[in-house]
Design a protein that fits this description.
The chain is built from 13 helices and eight strands. By secondary structure, the chain is α/β, with parallel strands linked by helices. Strands 1, 2, 3, 4, 5, 6, 7 and 8 form an eight-stranded mixed β-sheet that branches. Helix 3 links the parallel strand 2 and strand 3.
């Protein structure tokens, strides 16, 4: 009798254990690691644009109570926190894109290309990200630390139309200047509604605050000081961040307000990524690289995303260590063509990115159709588009 009861108990326990294991497996399939879906096995190439990590303020305002504060690394420097953010972003990117990395985990220019804005914080962010994205295997590493040198390409700021986006553009500058002097209706209304706020901010800061750009720059200073534990002055109460954030966000979007502005500020980067995709399809991509990494700024991200009309799906003011990824997939749906996907990492803690719906392109979105979507953003000659005057040869 006892043996019979024991046998029944064992059967019930095994049944319950089996049921529990089944539920765990079912939950994993439904909610589990979306970075290992079958579709990612068909991934052929990625281009990853990311914002640098946490930084010190790039400037201060005249009446700043923290003007004598000694910022580690100086103004505009990547912080230790920022370096860790980028390292974690690199690890999270590896979770999704490890199949595209070199099998031996050693850097190869044939398989990877890294480009950074010339700002030190962007260069250091790229270095930190790569430490998490492509650490060498222990048996392959001759250094006493789990790190390997990886080439990072730079372009002088005044020659950079892609990341720093400081390359001069006469037509663009004329349009932006006009937008500040003769704002579009919604911006004019914002300026009118916030006239009193502008006056208060001018008084409290000791500098002229008369448009959304001025508010954006001040917002960024206050945000950094708050995030680094500094006490903000009393006048910021009920003003920062709630009243200033919408104005700062509008300022970012203003840089790509018109079709030409989108083409200049977003199109330069998009043209490079698109050309890589086309060359991949033609099987003429230089050295058949699989991974392209770009270290830029918040304004770089906004300019590209607003040009693609996806700001409402991502962020109007990107966080540190956020990333936009252009994925190129082999697809059974298209003959002699690729599928294009966009995904967005909101920050360095984001292990599973959000898939972005590409405007005016059906799902799945073929590279051919994606090319049509980008038609008005592709740049053939930057200087001709901008009507830049070429220097006379001597």
């Amino acid at each position: 009798m006892n043996l019979e009861c024991s046998s029944k108990t064992t059967k019930i326990s095994v049944f319950l254990l089996g049921g529990a294991l089944f539920m765990v497996m079912l939950a994993y399939m439904v909610f589990g690691d979306t970075n290992d879906q079958e579709g990612l096995r068909n991934l052929r190439m990625v281009s990853i644009l990311f914002r640098h990590g946490d930084r010190t303020p790039t400037e201060l305002y005249p009446k700043d109570p923290h003007s004598s504060y000694e910022w580690p690394g100086g103004l505009g420097a990547l912080t230790q926190k920022g370096s860790l953010q980028m390292y974690n972003l690199g690890k999270n990117l590896k979770l999704r894109y490890y199949r595209l990395l070199p099998k031996n985990s050693l850097y190869s220019k044939q398989e990877m290309y890294v480009h950074s804005s010339a700002a030190e914080r962007c260069l250091m962010s790229a270095q930190s990200l790569l430490a998490g994205f492509l650490p060498p295997l222990e048996h392959q590493n001759i250094l006493p630390i789990p790190w390997q040198p990886i080439a990072i390409n730079l372009t002088a700021r005044l020659d950079d139309a892609i990341l720093a986006q400081k390359k001069p553009c006469k037509r663009y500058d004329e349009i932006l200047k006009k937008l500040y002097s003769s704002p579009p209706p919604d911006l004019e209304a914002l300026n009118r509604e916030n006239k009193e706020l502008y006056e208060k901010l001018s008084k409290y800061t000791g500098q002229n605050i008369s448009n959304v750009l001025h508010v954006e720059l001040l917002y960024n200073i206050l945000e950094v000081e708050r995030d680094h534990g500094l006490e903000l002055p009393d006048w910021t109460e009920n003003i920062f961040p709630e009243k200033m954030l919408p104005l700062a966000e509008r300022s970012y979007a203003l840089f790509t307000e018109t079709p030409l502005m989108k083409k200049v500020k977003g199109g330069a980067f998009i043209t490079e990524v698109h050309n890589q995709m086309i060359n991949k399809r033609k099987k003429i991509l230089n050295q058949d690289r699989k991974v392209f990494l770009y270290s830029g700024h918040d304004v770089t991200m906004v300019n590209v995303m607003n040009s693609l009309n996806i700001l409402d799906q991502t962020s109007r003011k990107p966080e540190y260590a956020s990333a936009l990824v252009f994925e190129l997939h082999h697809s059974v749906y298209f003959r002699d063509d690729f599928e294009v996907k966009l995904v967005y990492y909101f920050n360095s803690e984001d292990k599973f990115p959000k898939e972005i719906s590409i405007p005016h392109c059906d799902t799945p979105c073929s590279l051919t159709e994606f090319s049509k979507v980008l038609k008005n953003l592709i740049i053939d000659n930057f200087d001709e588009l901008c009507e830049n005057v070429k220097p006379c040869k001597t």
